Amino acid sequence: MVDDPSLGTRERLLAAGRRAALDSGLRKVTVRGVCKEAGVNLGSFVYHFGQRDAFIAELIEHTYAPLLERIRQEFSMAAPPVERLRRMVLELCQFFSARGDVILRMWMDGYAGEAAAIDFMRKVGQRHPQLLLRCIREAQAQGELAPAPPRHVLMFLMTSVGLPVLLGRMRHDPRVRPNLLVRMVTRHGANPRDIEQRLDWALKGLQAQG
């Protein structure tokens, strides 16, 4: 049970929801279960959130908002576009490393039909990815990166640098045997030095040729 006396009712409900989502995924979060864990009655839940989908949507947003804020801060820095791009990709990788379990569960829940997760997946492309794409376009305009479709560049960066971080979370799943792929991503996927090295390799490969 959530027993932090400093938390208000809304925060207690969100804390209970985060715990339930991390343990079992969003699909198994129930209003009654959250209320019981938070020590809050059903009427208070309805007062603060109305219904379950709104509550799940806020849980997702609460997880995502800090990442979006950090990406915005890096985008706004007074630095060359390629350096800002590098810093933004590192922020994403750090987020994947810290919250990878939550991200993977949310995507699985979305594909299984969880309405709030589907809505987030549909709309997130207009948020932090747009800042990354703008930075890529700026870097190309200044001759820092070779001309190429910006979305293709972003896909290359995220699959070569970020995807191994998420794959590394598979080691926490007891159903996954420790095969070669799992051993590789466990050793190199989320190691901060290896992340930076992959990113430097990728950006070097994307540099405009003189």
| Annotated CATH architecture of the largest domain | Orthogonal Bundle
What is the count of distinct domains? 2
Strand content: under 5%
CATH structural class of the largest domain: Mainly Alpha
Distance between the termini: 61 Å
Number of helices: 10
Can you write the helix and strand succession as a string? HHHHHHHHHH
- Overall pLDDT score: 89
Biggest pleated-sheet summary: none
CATH topology of the largest domain: Tetracycline Repressor, domain 2
What does this structure look like?
This protein has 210 residues and is mostly helical. The chain contains 10 helices and no strands. α4 (52-75) packs parallel to α7, α5 runs antiparallel to α7 and α7 (128-141) packs across α8. The longest helix has 31 residues, at 81-111. The mean pLDDT is 89.
Q: What's the gist of this structure?
A:
This protein has 210 residues and is mainly α.
List strands and helices in order, with pairings:
Elements: H1 9-24, H2 31-38, H3 42-49, H4 52-75, H5 81-111, H6 115-123, H7 128-141, H8 150-167, H9 180-188, H10 192-206
Helix pairs in contact: 1-2, 4-5, 4-6, 4-7, 5-6, 5-7, 5-8, 5-10, 7-8, 8-10
List keywords for this structure.
210 residues; elongated; Arc Repressor Mutant, subunit A; 2 domains; Tetracycline Repressor, domain 2; 0% strand; mainly alpha
